[in-house]
Amino acid sequence: IDGAMINSQVRRVFVSGAGGQTGQHVFRKLLSLPDEFEPIGVVRTESSKASLVESGVPESSVMICDVTDAEACAAAMKGCDAAVICTSAKPAPNGEINEETGRPVFGFPNGQPEVVDWVGQKNQIDAAKSVGKSNAHVVICSSMGGTNPNHPLNNLGKETVSDGTTKGGDILKWKRKSEKYLIDSGLPYTIVHPGGLINEPGGKRELCLGVDDKIEGTDNNVVPREDVASVLVNALRYEAYRGRSFDLVSKNEGEGTITTDFNALLSSLKEKSADYSLGEIA
């Protein structure tokens, strides 16, 4: 049945970006469901691992892995039943000021989108297919905005070269390339495009789904990271989430009815799923 929860043995789940904000929420939620999941939190640095372990996470549940290294991804993914990909290139001010606007210029000090959001995600998808269990379910935390090639997020970290061409940036186009690669891989997949991520508590809002950067029922375009994590976790739990790509925002706290039934949440989409002929793919 579509609405059925997936009742299998405890599933081993690879969670990348587990030292980051949204990925850490996913990792901790899976750790709190030991009858269903055995998560492996994948982090980039020793210091990320140390801070997770200091906070009480079992050391055996955390692995250091640079997702841009295909072999490292395969070692961490071995034997996993599912993967939740929460890695993303992270913009930060590069110290320069834009003379025209007077605003800081942003770059990607820990890796450009092409490297993190394309190569890194492709490595994780390839690892799930080659060394994960048969038909490993891959869930991606992506971003809204992918239908608009001129989205401001695509300008972050982009440079114009002397011949007039550009290099770098285009984060949403590289994310879209990875999403399409996952869909074409034949693996069971779920792709979630959250709106603007905020650090408010989860479980206090009505969540709203849509596709192709259009969401009915609210003009709010933000969503708490913890609520995004709840959707990513429930995508592993309910069969109906497989083969779907959709957008996610929340109503303001105090509006509507707090979402608690994640199967009913998905059924609000009916049969809709993202149309990848829209927008541009890098």
Provide the fold topology:
Elements: E1 11-16, H1 21-31, E2 37-43, H2 46-54, E3 62-64, H3 70-77, E4 82-85, E5 92-97, E6 104-107, H4 113-130, E7 137-141, E8 159-160, E9 166-167, H5 171-184, E10 189-194, E11 196-198, E12 207-210, E13 222-224, H6 225-237, E14 244-250, H7 262-267
Parallel strand pairs: 1-2, 1-4, 2-3, 4-7, 7-10, 10-14, 11-13
Antiparallel strand pairs: 5-6, 8-9, 12-14
Helix pairs in contact: 1-6, 3-4, 4-5
Query: Ranges with pLDDT <50 over ≥5 residues?
Result: none
Adjacency order of strands in the biggest sheet:
3-2-1-4-7-10-14-12
Order of helices and strands: EHEHEHEEEHEEEHEEEEHEH
The residue-averaged pLDDT reads 95
Instruction: Tell me the number of strands.
Output: 14
Distance between the amino and carboxyl termini: 37 Å
Could you say which overall geometry the principal axes of the C-alpha atoms support? Answer: globular
Number of helices: 7
- Percent range for β-strand residues: 15-25%
Structural class: alpha/beta
Largest sheet: 8 strands, mixed
